[in-house]
Amino acid sequence: MNDSKKAVEKLEIDKILYFFPIVIILSACVYLGFNLEKANNIINVIFAYITGNFSWFYQFFTFGCLAVCIYLIFGKYGSMRFGDEKPEFSTFSWLSMIFTAALGGSLVLWATIEPFYYVMGPPFGVEAYSYEAYQWATTYPLFHWGFTGNSMYCALGVTFAYMFWVRKKDVNRASTACALVLGDKVTSGWAGKIIDILLIISIVGGIATTLGLSTPLASELIVALFGIPRTLTMDIALIIFWVILISITVYSGLNKGIRIVSNVRMWLIFGILGYIFLVGPKVFMLNNFCEGLGNMMNDFFKMSFYTEPFGNPDFNGFPQWWTIFYWAWWASYASQMGIYFARISKGRTVRSFCLAILTATGLGVWIFFAVFGNYTLHAFINEKLPQLPDILNNAGNAAAVVHVWESLPLPTLVLSAILLLTILATITLLNGSAYTLAMLSTKKLTGEQEPAGWNRISWVLVLGTLALILMAIGGLKAVQTSSVLVSFPMLFIFIIIIAGFFKVTKDDNWGNLNGKTKQNIVAKTDSESANI
């Protein structure tokens, strides 16, 4: 009985971290849901204000993260290891886990249609559908999905990895990392609660953005395959379907079920990529990717600081609509991804950690754009998709990408495979995110203990509700605003966390220690804990 009581206590929720974010999110959903027309205006005002007034801040922040990563690779910390133990995973498995972390259903959508958006509305005042527009269309996706965005995961992940494996701290919350600078007395009170509430809301906003993109995609695929009319009811049914599937996996063996789903998803990804490459314009894909990569390297700094102050005095143009949105979207995932990468990187050096995150994920995603994106551009140029601009403008990006895939040989097989991939990717996304949110809102989790199943399912419902409201309000602009809004306050918290790494490693003299003397850091932190 005592053991049972103890187990219940360990699974007790943190009422502040559970109820406050849910009340805030659901209140916003109710208000927006009953005021859809007004909500669209609110969304436009919020998006324009944050991206217009703080474009410079997002650009400096993300480039600063990349600069931190470069310093960590080539500076005195590069050869330092996260703990004295041997790596938990083989190098191949470790890189595979990093690579697959970014492979979701929304990536398939963006890899197909994002380059064409840039052909229609290119940056730097370039004329639409011009040769220069096509050049930027193959360049900007590699920039948006490359080193810079991943540098946020990397810079934060180094801090978490140091605390996990060197200082031997159990870090699941942003407030714990902020204590490196602010101190335990500050972060153990209301300041810490506010930091963690912002983190939870940020994760919810980022996931809702992904759901708001992948749910319409799944619906359009169902329409194309079965001829069922697309309605909001279908989107709601999909959310309910995913919740039911996740409920089953939660109560019938989470790890085994999700592992099988992940393996199937990987085979589907490589199968779809291989098929489109084989039946598509292979030489064009390779040449265009090569040129796009060269253009990105040549204009990297130009894109990194582009805010369009003269071409768009209202600051609501290309960099705000695209680049700032992407940096905000990455930021909404940054803490969650940083903790995940840190957890799987025991025994790795700082240099290998940074290089793996910056390259493994980025290079993996670039393969999608090299195949999917270049197929779309080639098909449009050769008049296989003449209606694509009209479909994109009038029916949305989900309908447009389905139109692209229908132009492939054996379209029914392709659409079926991508529908299955979208469903599986959404299941793993929802499950992993709900697990993280449930973990953050649970008071104590020890050992192999998992947060309560009902807690995870409640977060799935919250995520689904917000995604549906965002879709009902106004599609792409609404989901973009979700990421921008929730990520903005997190940037300041991330600066504190990254600064905390350099502060505590300087105090620990970590960058100047050899492998045999690192045990002193653990002894020091144990002493600090005892004195608090």
TrEMBL record:
<dbReference type="InterPro" id="IPR000060">
    <property type="entry name" value="BCCT_transptr"/>
</dbReference>
<keyword id="KW-0472">Membrane</keyword>
<feature type="transmembrane region" description="Helical">
    <location>
        <begin position="56"/>
        <end position="74"/>
    </location>
</feature>
<feature type="transmembrane region" description="Helical">
    <location>
        <begin position="236"/>
        <end position="254"/>
    </location>
</feature>
<feature type="transmembrane region" description="Helical">
    <location>
        <begin position="142"/>
        <end position="165"/>
    </location>
</feature>
<protein>
    <submittedName>
        <fullName>L-carnitine/gamma-butyrobetaine antiporter</fullName>
    </submittedName>
</protein>
<keyword id="KW-0812">Transmembrane</keyword>
<feature type="transmembrane region" description="Helical">
    <location>
        <begin position="194"/>
        <end position="216"/>
    </location>
</feature>
<keyword id="KW-1003">Cell membrane</keyword>
<feature type="transmembrane region" description="Helical">
    <location>
        <begin position="353"/>
        <end position="375"/>
    </location>
</feature>
<feature type="transmembrane region" description="Helical">
    <location>
        <begin position="457"/>
        <end position="476"/>
    </location>
</feature>
<feature type="transmembrane region" description="Helical">
    <location>
        <begin position="94"/>
        <end position="113"/>
    </location>
</feature>
<feature type="transmembrane region" description="Helical">
    <location>
        <begin position="16"/>
        <end position="36"/>
    </location>
</feature>
<keyword id="KW-1133">Transmembrane helix</keyword>
<feature type="transmembrane region" description="Helical">
    <location>
        <begin position="266"/>
        <end position="286"/>
    </location>
</feature>
<feature type="transmembrane region" description="Helical">
    <location>
        <begin position="321"/>
        <end position="341"/>
    </location>
</feature>
<dbReference type="Pfam" id="PF02028">
    <property type="entry name" value="BCCT"/>
</dbReference>
<feature type="transmembrane region" description="Helical">
    <location>
        <begin position="482"/>
        <end position="502"/>
    </location>
</feature>
<keyword id="KW-0813">Transport</keyword>
<feature type="transmembrane region" description="Helical">
    <location>
        <begin position="413"/>
        <end position="437"/>
    </location>
</feature>
